[in-house]
Specification:
Number of helices: 6
Order of helices and strands: EHEEEHEEEEEEHEHEHEEEEEEEH
Helix content: 10-25%
Shape: elongated
Largest sheet: 7 strands, mixed
Bound molecules: NADP nicotinamide-adenine-dinucleotide phosphate
Distance between the termini: 26 Å
Length: about 325
């Protein structure tokens, strides 16, 4: 059993910012990062709205956040938390694939994962033309035709990124207007390689070992068409990674952890930050801010705990 003061679960902007603040407060935090550092931002292409960076690639921003947290003493473990016990009070217990831990305080920053469409062919063709990561897979579509599903910032931003490789990017959206912000919408409208097809849903993905065609349906007329395509990129939002905390921490019907104004969950000493608790803003910068708040709150909590323990002696 490894004993820690503060464990941070997750290594996106929320987790790494919490690590930076906690390290600077001499809390010697341990970040359990998952298998890959960075969360969603690490698979994002251009980040243009993180203050101080005009334009930075998501993986580069992640690397900078990690280096800055480590510079002040944060430790990073590449492992996954498989079990937690928050219900029996302090010390909180956590298990990963390789270790068991006890901690006086925990910050949960496990973020959110990409939603799937749930249509026939999607699961079978993942990694064979179906993807949710343009930065990871865009290169494989040089000179090809790809389809992007979704109408939010991710769909448009990653669709624009894909035009660096693909000859044609068709964004299909189930409504008659994109949800994405104005800057991105204007860029998409000005890009000859992008075509936005409205009021359309994807019903099926087909191909022999790789994506070859899709079946789409108009939600206004009900008409069905088959389109040839080389790839399908799905950007239809995310769900919070809170399965691990079912029955341990209070959450809403969508699975977002409930926190008070000090970022504290339903268990005192367990805090949460980022997309695991934020159903509204979901930006790299808002997650970073929540990570900062959670670390400051954890610091105050641990200080009060120490004062209590001293007084009891
Ligand atoms: P999002 O804003 O939740 O948008 C998801 C899109 O997918 C919506 O247009 C939605 O349609 C559509 N959709 C959902 N389920 C669907 C389904 N089953 N079939 C077809 N379409 C479906 O998700 P996001 O674009 O990933 O963005 C998440 C958050 O990150 C947002 O807060 C966004 O602002 C932020 N973000 C920001 C940037 C940036 O600032 N540059 C970049 C990326 C992400 P409806 O419109 O009908 O709901």
């Amino acid at each position: 059993m490894q004993t820690e003061t503060l464990i941070i679960i997750g290594s996106g902007p929320a987790g790494l910012t919490a690590a930076l603040y906690a390290a600077r407060a001499n809390l010697n935090p341990l970040v359990i990062a998952g298998n890959q550092i960075g969360g969603q931002i690490a698979i994002t292409s251009d980040v243009e709205n993180f203050p101080g960076f005009d334009n930075i690639l998501g993986p580069d921003l992640t690397e900078k956040m990690k280096a800055q947290a480590e510079k002040f003493g944060a430790r990073i473990e590449y492992d996954e938390v498989t079990e937690v016990d928050f219900t029996h009070g302090r010390p909180f217990r956590l298990k990963t694939y390789s270790q068991e831990y006890e901690a006086q305080a925990v910050i949960v920053a496990t973020g959110a994962s990409a939603k799937r469409l749930g249509v026939p062919g999607e699961d079978a063709l993942i990694g064979r033309g179906v993807s949710d990561c343009a930065t990871c897979d865009g290169f494989f579509f040089k000179g090809k035709h790809v389809l992007v599903v979704g109408g939010g910032d991710s769909a448009v931003q990653e669709g624009l990124f894909l035009t660096k490789f693909a000859n044609r990017v068709r964004i299909i959206h189930r409504r008659d207007a994109l949800r994405a912000g104005e800057t991105l919408k204007a860029r998409a409208a000005a890009n000859d390689k992008i075509q936005v097809v409205y009021n359309t849903v994807l019903d099926r993905i087909e191909g022999n070992g790789k994506v070859q065609r899709v079946q789409v349906r108009s939600v206004t007329t009900g008409s069905v068409e088959t389109w040839e395509t080389d790839g399908v990129f799905v950007f239809i939002g995310h769900f919070p990674n809170s399965q691990l905390f079912q029955g341990q921490l209070a959450m809403d019907a969508q699975g977002f952890l409930l926190v008070d104004k000090y970022m504290q969950t339903s268990v005192p000493g367990v805090f949460a930050a980022g997309e695991i608790m934020d159903p509204i803003y979901k930006q790299a910068i808002s997650s970073a801010g929540q990570g900062c708040q959670a670390a400051l709150a954890a610091e105050r909590y641990l200080e009060a705990l120490e004062a209590q323990q001293l007084a009891a002696r």
